[in-house]
Amino acid sequence: MAQPKTRWDIFCTVVDNYGDIGVTWRLARQLAAEHALVVRLWVDDLRAFERICPELDIHLDAQWQQGVEVRHWPTEWPETDAADVVIAAFACQLPSAYMDAMAEREKPPLWMNLDYLSAEDWVVGCHGLPSVKYKSVQKIFFFPGFQAGTGGLLRESGLLDRRRRFQQDPESQRQFLQALGVVPAPGAQLISLFAYENAGLASWLDVLAADSTPTHLLVPEGRILGDVARWLGVESLAVGDFNVRQALTVQVLPFVRQDQYDQLLWCCDFNAVRGEDSFVRAQWAGRPMLWHIYQQDEDIHLDKLDAFLALYGKGLSTEAAEAMNGLWRAWSAGQPIGQHWLEARKYWPELQENAEAWCLEQALQADLATALVQFYRNWI
């Protein structure tokens, strides 16, 4: 007789527009598709979710999307059974009635806090440790990460093979970009820009505009558009807007679904990304990148940034590492980065090789979804 499928509940409160839901939506789909699990994804903000899953009906409390039961997380919690595995994404607080339902189960569920991604050394020591306890139910810390002893990174089966085939197929890239209305000039470098507001942007755009190499800058809808508009001297920017300043072409793209964003990253020579979800996807693209880390009180995010740079740049020469580190640190501090960009360009082949080598190194670890499933199997 077949064993019943394990039921998983993932809870997501949308704090930073798309990062939280981006991670949990990828995870939920992978658990259902690759591990044959019954997955419910509880989300408090369906409007933000709709941006990355346009098929979503924001007026429904319950619906199925891509093999996942999507539930609206309401103010008034409905009576519902607790799942076998409960994931509180990014330390979100579960409804008290659901916590009671967990405690009432004959066998308590595995309750995990899926924490934020970090390269800091202490993560390895804390991964898998017990956290708080509610009645008979023990919460466990589960940390994604870049090193052995962590939960790894989200990576769907076959992702790097799909990326490699796409990057080796100029016609597929041309068709993808053309569908977005992007037709780069011959010889232009393609750069994607997805970032928070940043006072350091203007100096970078100045340098790109004055460069001898043409640049086509692709800017998906997002918080950086206001800074781009100010540099261009226009009141605002909208999807489809197209502006040329000397060697720099700026084009505003629509907010696209996750698989299309992956392909956008794969097309570009350089990707500026933000937060957590796009940060990980840029690493799988195997191209030089720039991370705008989410700002935290007392600048503790800069410790997180330095910890990642120490790992990511360990294969670089001293000079290339210093150039890259200077660029990343200035960007996350909101400082002018034009000169840092010019310095980093001196080591472009080395930065390209490092990006691909890092990608392949990270792919040697178990992916996050597989690590979660294995953790549950060990737990039972």
UniProtKB/TrEMBL annotation:
Q: Does the keyword Transferase apply?
A: yes
Q: Does the keyword Metal-binding apply?
A: no
* GO molecular function term, any single one: translation elongation factor activity
Identify the domain of life: Bacteria
Reactions catalysed, semicolon-separated, are: dTDP-beta-L-rhamnose + L-arginyl-[protein] = N(omega)-(alpha-L-rhamnosyl)-L-arginyl-[protein] + dTDP + H(+)
A Pfam family this chain is assigned to: EarP
Q: Which InterPro entries match?
A: EarP
Q: Which UniProt keywords apply?
A: Elongation factor, Glycosyltransferase, Protein biosynthesis, Transferase
This chain's function reads: Protein-arginine rhamnosyltransferase that catalyzes the transfer of a single rhamnose to elongation factor P (EF-P) on 'Lys-32', a modification required for EF-P-dependent rescue of polyproline stalled ribosomes.
Question: Which family is annotated?
Answer: Belongs to the glycosyltransferase 104 family.
Q: What is this protein called?
A: Protein-arginine rhamnosyltransferase
Organism of origin is: Pseudomonas kribbensis
The record lists the lineage as: Bacteria, Pseudomonadati, Pseudomonadota, Gammaproteobacteria, Pseudomonadales
Gene encoding this polypeptide?
earP
